[in-house]
Amino acid sequence: MKTHKQLGALFGLTSKQPVRSWEKYTHESDTAHTNTAEHSAKTLTDAVRAQCEDGYVSPTDQQLANAAGDIAELLASGLVSVSIPMKEEKPSVTAFLKVAAPRMPQQRVIIIDDGSTDNVVAEVKKHHVATLVPKSEILATIDEGKLLPVLGLDHMPRGKGVAVLASYLLQYLANKFSKEFHPQWIIHTDADIGAHTSFRPLDYLSYGMLAGNGVAHVKLAQSGRNNEATMAIRSMLGALGMFTKDATSNEMQQFSARASDLFAKLAKYKWILSGTFALSFDAAMRRPFATGYIEETLIAAYVEDAALKTVQVANENRCTDGANDFMKESIIVQQAANFTACLSYISKRVHEWTVSDITNINSCILKRPVPLAFIPPAGPEPVIGYAIENERIIPSIEALVAGGFIDLEKGKLLVEKYFA
């Protein structure tokens, strides 16, 4: 394989000047009192634009073709695994398996069965590239009695995030106890994604993985979807940070700084809620989990707070996936927005969260139901008021292992069963 430097040149990536920081801008805007309002706005525009363009690549078809050999070598190397949580009534995931099978070694696609129908399970088992494991078997290695107080719950939560946790835990155990399973990257995708021959997530994500030294997070970038709605809350944080930066109380000063910080870090994400992304194995093991719809936002905040390198790869080829109904889509967007706002009140950065911090976040900040309101998509009905239970944060795999939450002997037996 070519070196990262050679691949960077091949892909059209160049070294950029250090991104102008948001904090530096706000300081200059205070001290450069001779600036006119127009000049100040232009300076702010330049600063925000630099933040948003950092790490963004838009490969042409020719650039993808030039990189095809290196992408094929990476996927065939065994250094990439795929994580798929599955709770399906139709075997939609087999479309991905047919694409992955000729390109990846056996057992590199980890599918966590979260209650799919027997027909779906039977279809998946026909594809030898996949390792299919029931979520319940993996969660059985976790000491629930020890974890539930951290979550502030009396039962294990459900949700896609818990299935993702199960997948990452299984891969941690396989990496520890298996001789053959040692990935450097984990690709995540949803079971109901279709149109793989045009959407090509393996190609676009691999392109990002190979885009230079130090890349730890690769996101697909695409317009439309619910992106503008999720951007509104991030832009609001930037505005709130500016409105409150002259506050006198310590609490408001911390809020102002964190709100501005989050805008500077998260505004660049074009498709922040996309469930198709890649994480380096180390980052995957160190990042905390969320039980439901805030997973992708939490990952982005973790990566940015830890100063890890993100590459966004533009891919305007549409995928097909299971359509969410109006209510579910609204809940997803509003939960993500609420959590982004919640982060601004937590002064400690995500990568610094300890098990004790997460316990406090769950028991103090996330313990109450949250009110939501929805505008009906059509018709004369009034706005719909609603309230839902908040999600919970779960410590990282590394934190769970270090804290004695995982029965490693049970984990070893699980690896022997599925990675013999």
Protein described:
Helix 7 links the parallel strand 3 and strand 4. The strands form three sheets. This protein has an eight-stranded mixed sheet, with helices on both faces. 49% of the residues lie in helices and 13% in strands. The N terminus is likely disordered. It has 420 residues and is α/β, with parallel strands linked by helices. The two termini are 29 Å apart. It contains 20 helices and twelve strands.
How are the SSEs ordered, and which strands pair?
Blueprint: H1 4-10, H2 22-31, H3 37-53, E1 56-57, H4 61-66, H5 68-76, E2 80-86, H6 94-100, E3 109-113, H7 118-124, E4 130-134, H8 135-139, H9 144-151, H10 160-177, E5 185-188, H11 196-199, H12 201-209, E6 215-221, H13 227-243, H14 250-266, E7 277-280, H15 281-286, E8 289-290, H16 295-305, E9 309-314, H17 326-343, H18 355-365, E10 370-374, E11 384-388, E12 393-394, H19 397-402, H20 408-418
Parallel strand pairs: 1-9, 2-3, 2-5, 3-4, 6-9
Antiparallel strand pairs: 5-7, 6-7, 8-12, 10-11
Helix pairs in contact: 2-3, 5-12, 10-20, 13-14, 13-17
Task: Tag the structure with descriptive keywords.
12 strands; globular; 8-stranded mixed β-sheet; alpha/beta; 420 residues; disordered N terminus; 20 helices
